[in-house]
Amino acid sequence: QVQLVESGGGLVQPGGSLTLSCAVSGRTFSTYTMGWFRQAPGKEREFVTGISASGSVTYYADSVKGRFTISRDNAKNTVYLQLNGLKPEDTGIYLCAAARSTYRATLAASYNYWGQGTQVTVSS
Question: Most buried pick, 36, 44, 103, 111, via CB within 10 A?
Answer without folding.
Answer: 36
